[in-house]
Amino acid sequence: MRLALAGAILVALTVLLPNAAKAQFGLRGGPLGVARFAVGHVIGLSRLRHARMAMRGGRYRSAALRSQDPRGERGQPANPYVLRAALTAQAALSGWHGGRRPQGWWRHPDGSYGWIGPVFWPFAHDDLTTAVIFGDTTSLSLYGYGDIYAAIFAPYAAPELAAYTAPQGRRARRVPSAEMVCDSSDTGGLPVDRIAATVQPNEMQRTALDELASAWTSARDAIRASCPAQAPMTAAERLDVMQTRLDAMIKASNALAAPLAKFVDLLDDGQKAKLDSLARERQAALASAQRKDAPAASACDPNYDPRYDVQAQRQYEQLVQQQWPASDIAGTLKLDDTGRARLDVLQDTTLRTLETLSSCPMKAETTPQARLAAVKARLQTMQQVVSGVADALDDFEADLSDEQKAGFEAIGPKRGT
């Protein structure tokens, strides 16, 4: 079991971060956070096989190109993780070489994608709902280093990326527009009927619940409005797209705070316990799944220290050996000593996000208000991290010629093939 688990982790890392390049073993703060990232990703691997099976189904493939919500199709609710993996994979790969390659190093461990063409975090609003109401931060926690890495080294060539916002000819029939991706991904909203059935609200409470639902819909629309109208063609533009999306999610969190507190405060203790049972049920299901994968679950234990885990050390070494194509960048761009030093700073700044943004699910808070605050804190941390990487990228590109910048942008699509 341990050997199989280690192999699965290395496969996941190979998918996410290919190509060998030199990297120091001791990132700032030590290997603790990075090793947790490496081992923690295996939690999502148990869903990956099911996601791949779903991707083979024509019903899920075609769902990615339709604007309606396929979750209620045929009256059977789909597994949300399977649906996400299938819907995002079809949309993400359709613009990349026509979707002929069912893979991608910018894929999340659960089989879904942090980027669909020019769109970052396609299930942003649904992830907020799942984290706040159901206390499940699994999908939210997977956003981090890999998505920043994909923003810098986009796997799409310029024509492939542009197809999502300006479809042309035959390609237009198979590449969903960025607007369609945004409209079709966040369709869940607040589960009003389920909440009402659980807490049995009185008239005043029902009014507050309706107000909360309205705020939830407005938050979804605000996040959708952050969908890019034009394809970001450079790493700097893609990092800006990330910051815009994160800013919209933070503002949505702020807008939800007051109506959420109003509704919860109107509930009596029994009703609050029933509302919290929605989160407890989801957390129990997640805990049951993690117990089947004990080594991966232990990696997310705050008392776990991989410095004393030989297997985790080897996994970390494998990770850092597969990092940035530093030699390729330096050789292609013909960097001088100053350029190499700035590239080192950019690489180090980005690698440190592995520790800052752990992929382990966040601590389970006991109330919806506390969970909303925790989600907002995570988003703010991610926004700060992306801003820091954007600054480092700006410094790196400050003295590059247009030809060098073009060479840098071409590295990602070349590696993606």
Could you provide a short overview of the structure?
The protein is mainly alpha-helical and 417 residues long. A hairpin with a 2-residue loop joins strand 1 (115-116) and strand 2. It contains 21 helices and two strands.
Q: Would you list the SSEs in sequence order as H and E? A: HHHHHEEHHHHHHHHHHHHHHHH
Mean of all residue-level pLDDT scores? 75
Count of DSSP-assigned helices: 21
State Rg. Answer: 21 Å
Shape: elongated
Provide the fold topology:
Layout: H1 2-16, H2 32-40, H3 45-55, H4 58-63, H5 80-94, E1 115-116, E2 119-120, H6 124-133, H7 138-141, H8 145-152, H9 158-162, H10 178-185, H11 192-199, H12 203-225, H13 235-266, H14 269-291, H15 294-299, H16 310-321, H17 326-333, H18 337-351, H19 353-356, H20 368-397, H21 402-416
Antiparallel strand pairs: 1-2
Helix pairs in contact: 1-16, 2-16, 3-5, 6-20, 12-13, 13-20, 17-21, 18-20
Key terms:
mainly alpha, single chain, two-stranded antiparallel sheet, 21 helices, 417 residues, disordered N terminus
Task: Kindly describe this structure.
The protein has 417 residues and is an all-alpha fold. Helices cover 64% and strands 1% of the residues. It is built from 21 helices and two strands. The chain has helices at 2-16, 32-40, 45-55, 58-63, 80-94, 124-133, 138-141, 145-152, 158-162, 178-185, 192-199, 203-225, 235-266, 269-291, 294-299, 310-321, 326-333, 337-351, 353-356, 368-397, 402-416; strands at residues 115-116, 119-120. Strands 1-2 form a two-stranded antiparallel ribbon. α13 runs antiparallel to α20 and α18 packs antiparallel against α20 (368-397). The model is unreliable at 1-78 (pLDDT under 50).
